[in-house]
Amino acid sequence: MRVVLQTWTSAQVRAAEQPLLAAGVPLMERAAFALHVHTAAALRELRGGVAGARVVVLVGPGNNGGDALYAGALLARRGVAVHAVLTATRAHEAGLAALLRAGGRAVQLAEPVDEVAALAAGADVVLDGVLGIGADGSGLRGVSGALVDAIVARGRPYVVAVDLPSGLGVDDGRRDGVVLDADLTVTFGAAKPCLLLPPGARAAGRVVLVDLGLDPAGAPEVVRLDPSDVAALWPVPAPDAHKYTRGVLGVVAGSRAYQGAAVLTTGAAVRAGVGMVRYLGDAGDAVVAAHPEVVVGHGRVQAWVFGPGVSPDDAGQRRRIEYAFEHVLERGEAAVVDAGALELLPPHVGPHAVLTPHAGELARVLTLRGEQVDRAGVEAEPLRWARRAHELTGATVLLKGPVTVVAGAHGAVYAQADAPAWLSTAGAGDVLAGLLGALLAGRVDDVHDDPSLAAALAATAALVHGRAAHRANPDGPISARAVADALPGTIAEVLAG
Ligand SMILES: NC(=O)C1=CN([C@@H]2O[C@H](COP(=O)(O)OP(=O)(O)OC[C@H]3O[C@@H](n4cnc5c(N)ncnc54)[C@H](OP(=O)(O)O)[C@@H]3O)[C@@H](O)[C@H]2O)[C@@H](O)CC1
Ligand SMILES: Nc1ncnc2c1ncn2[C@@H]1O[C@H](COP(=O)(O)OP(=O)(O)O)[C@@H](O)[C@H]1O
Ligand SMILES: [K+]
């Protein structure tokens, strides 16, 4: 089984299908065969066998419905009672004929939907073949939407999504209207961005990619890093390294009121393995008491972390951050720009500055630049707004949340889902900032050679952060400090492969 780590847009997928279709490769038959195999496996798991099962196939107007109808026909031939529900005025003709020949039945969906909803809710498996890559992202309209609502109200059965959960925004993961959440998605040829991107990705359940021999052109639209990618990205010290070659990180974080943010940020950087951490601010005593490795005061650095625990009315920290931003612009020092420092961002920085906002903070960054969007708007379309912030500021943007979305130079986009929800706790963002700062300090020269590397390093930080949270306490509450403490072991583990 292949884990989905790269995704292509619907346009890339359609273009990749063309040469195969022109050569007469029976893509739909192959897709449908694989869909029936995975559905049969689900039925065996759910009820111990295939024959005698009840499957309801929701069929839309296009080829997605065609896949579902052919898979239904194959299941019917194995003794499954298959009912197709035709949700549109047209349905794939040959697929429908195949299903009827195999002994399946078909009903046309119409209001009221109760009878069909009861049939679907009582099925062992529902195949969702309403919409695939032809969906416009506005959810399921009209009677299809009413049917899904009625099925969910009765208790959703096991759902297998055909190619993708119907109605999701294929390329952006939008979830605007009614969508039937799936337990399993069987996706064909190449995975689509909505299977990784928030908020839609959660609707997909487990994702299985069926190889149809497609070879999409161009870079994948959205990538998810895997632990095996980390070794090539991590600044592992060379045998002859010394602390200055490994990188020095300057941290402007915390204040008298928020000393903990300074302690967590510097502690995470020390544990992530940077050459040296310099701290600037009013929490130096607390920082050194917690981490005697940290040096308080000015000096040359390769990268910065600005902002954790900095309030905009703290004149001293504000001055330090504004001064250090000049170094970022003039000398090319890298920077993580977090929390209070986001408000101090110059109009245009390069991708070697990485913003780490949550949705509310990103909305503020954008509204300061004339966009009209609030937190809910960012949460509804995280990729769109992370990209927009990258366009407007030039910075790499890491948008925090249940799935972390990174948008950077040369169209680089990552979607990382490595963390347990327990990580949503005060101070976790400070730990991420320190960890990412350490990565940037170690690789700032490489970031200048390839500006899209900043996005890959940001995704790496999200991956290690999430895994450290699991390591800190696999299935229960975690403190931000415990996440920082888990970093050395987590990093050793992912580097070992
Ligand atoms: N190409 C191949 O060889 C292979 C393709 N394969 C399969 O084909 C699938 C793509 O098929 P497809 O292109 O027919 O699109 P699909 O999503 O089934 O229907 C789109 C139609 O639905 C409509 N519609 C749109 N949005 C809507 C909404 N919100 N609410 C309601 N209706 C809406 C819209 O119609 P309109 O409204 O414009 O009349 C549009 O025309 C792909 O996902 C994969 O499963 C595999 O077999 C492998 C080989
Ligand atoms: N539901 C969730 N599941 C997994 N990780 C989450 C979830 N919600 C938030 N996170 C992560 O938790 C961290 C919270 O950071 P942040 O919002 O900056 O908190 P703070 O400012 O208190 O440190 C981020 O890394 C974010 O991606
Ligand atoms: K579908």
From TrEMBL:
Reported cofactor(s): K(+); Mg(2+)
Keywords noted in UniProt: ATP-binding, Isomerase, Lyase, Metal-binding, Multifunctional enzyme, NAD, NADP, Nucleotide-binding, Potassium
Annotated YjeF N-terminal domain residues: 13-220
Binding site for K(+): N64, D128, S166
Catalytic activity: (6R)-NADPHX = (6S)-NADPHX; (6R)-NADHX = (6S)-NADHX; (6S)-NADPHX + ADP = AMP + phosphate + NADPH + H(+); (6S)-NADHX + ADP = AMP + phosphate + NADH + H(+)
Superkingdom assignment: Bacteria
Function of the protein: Catalyzes the dehydration of the S-form of NAD(P)HX at the expense of ADP, which is converted to AMP. Together with NAD(P)HX epimerase, which catalyzes the epimerization of the S- and R-forms, the enzyme allows the repair of both epimers of NAD(P)HX, a damaged form of NAD(P)H that is a result of enzymatic or heat-dependent hydration.
Protein name from the UniProt record: Bifunctional NAD(P)H-hydrate repair enzyme
Species this protein is from: Cellulomonas humilata
Gene behind the chain: nnrE
